[in-house]
């Protein structure tokens, strides 16, 4: 037997095995470095971290307000929803035709009411949980939003994930574990230990509510309108949080010692929340609600880095490790796009078979190029059919 032939056969076999593993993890797409790390991909990462920094801003201002004896989470939410009302809801009010606020309220008011109620209560329950459980428990259990969000996306949005997506989520959760370990080593296991089970239950309820809210947000901004979503959230969020504030914080608000510092903290918190609500639908539209929540896992780390300078927290090298691991998981999740359940697999299966044989052909590049072209045409056709179906469905709701 010719040694050179045997060596080539071994090389082709190894490439074929790597190809099969790659297709199993990532799907039929022929991923290349220049196609993965594009300007759009970099912008997605940057915008995700910008959202994390906005959450960090809300955490820092909340800490200062708590140190000043101000505990009015519903008032803070009410100010944010009111700002959304004064901008996006007014835009809807001046629109004409079917996109006018009157027409939206006639057909879908109860859906947006439930969405706003879910969002308001998710914000309230997670803040309430700090009174009963510890910071460590909240950081760990709050990650429950990701598997719930993936499940809801699978059921209602027909989103399908590759094995690499599940590996990426596991990597992100590993980074959260490193962050919690760093907190324990630094002695930051803060919070109440009274009624721990109640507090943990509130965190899980909050995570589930956030998942429902984020799925609704993803569907709305991708199929209807970002302005419509924010306008309706501003309208019903203001009403719901206003009523809840009058019931729960009627005694806490009058005793606030108002001064310039307190006022500026309220303004900073409201602007951070307004920016978060305004720009999060943009990132969701670019990626998905699951990807956005993975990027938001770094928000606690940004808060910790700020706390080292503002509140003199102890530093641990595990914080850096956690940030790198979470960012790596987020990149892994976004490298391979998700797909929908109604996608045709006939051409993909054919592509699998021919692509595996392309490695042992001298004209393999020509075959792979043909496969990419055929696959792209199929994806375009599927996307066109899905858009037609979605527009017909959306016009009925």
Automatic annotation (TrEMBL):
Keywords: Membrane, Transmembrane, Transmembrane helix, Transport. The gene is LOC107681189. GO terms for molecular function: transmembrane transporter activity. Belongs to the SLC35F solute transporter family. It comes from Sinocyclocheilus anshuiensis. It holds the Pfam family SLC35F. This is Solute carrier family 35 member F2-like. GO terms for cellular component: membrane. Putative solute transporter. It comes from the Eukaryota.
């Amino acid at each position: 037997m010719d040694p050179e032939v045997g060596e080539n056969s071994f090389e082709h076999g190894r490439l074929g095995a790597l190809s099969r593993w790659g297709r199993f993890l990532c799907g039929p797409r022929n991923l290349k470095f220049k196609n993965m790390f594009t300007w759009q991909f970099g912008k997605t990462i940057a915008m995700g971290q910008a959202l994390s920094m906005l959450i960090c801003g809300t955490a820092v201002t909340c800490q200062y307000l708590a140190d000043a004896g101000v505990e009015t989470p519903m008032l803070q939410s009410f100010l944010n929803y009111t700002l959304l009302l004064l901008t996006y809801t007014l835009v809807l009010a001046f629109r004409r035709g079917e996109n006018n606020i009157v027409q939206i309220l006639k057909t879908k008011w109860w859906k947006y009411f439930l969405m706003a109620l879910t969002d308001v209560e998710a914000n309230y329950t997670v803040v309430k949980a700090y009174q009963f459980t510890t910071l460590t428990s909240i950081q760990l259990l709050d990650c429950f939003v990701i598997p719930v969000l993936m499940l809801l996306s699978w059921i209602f949005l027909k989103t399908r994930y590759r094995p690499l997506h599940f590996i990426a989520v596991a990597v992100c959760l590993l980074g959260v574990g490193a962050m919690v370990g760093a907190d324990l080593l630094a002695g930051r296991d803060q919070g109440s230990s009274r009624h721990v089970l109640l507090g943990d239950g509130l965190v899980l309820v909050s995570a589930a509510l956030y998942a429902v809210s984020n799925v609704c947000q993803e569907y709305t901004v991708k199929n209807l309108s970002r302005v419509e979503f924010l306008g309706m959230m501003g309208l019903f969020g203001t009403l719901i949080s206003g009523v809840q504030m009058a019931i729960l914080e009627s005694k806490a608000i009058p005793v606030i010692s108002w001064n310039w510092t307190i006022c500026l903290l309220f303004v900073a918190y409201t602007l951070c929340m307004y920016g978060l609500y305004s720009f999060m639908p943009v990132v969701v539209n670019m990626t998905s609600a699951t990807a956005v929540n993975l990027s938001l896992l770094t928000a606690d780390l940004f808060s910790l880095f700020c706390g080292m300078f503002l509140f003199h927290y102890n530093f641990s090298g595990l914080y850096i490790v956690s940030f790198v691991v979470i960012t790596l998981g987020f990149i892994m999740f976004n490298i391979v796009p998700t797909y929908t359940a109604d996608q045709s697999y006939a051409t993909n299966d054919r592509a699998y078979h021919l692509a595996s044989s392309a490695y042992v052909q001298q004209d393999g590049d020509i075959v792979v190029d043909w496969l990419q072209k055929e696959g792209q045409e199929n994806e375009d056709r599927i996307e066109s059919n899905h858009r037609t179906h979605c527009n017909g469905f959306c016009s009925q709701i």
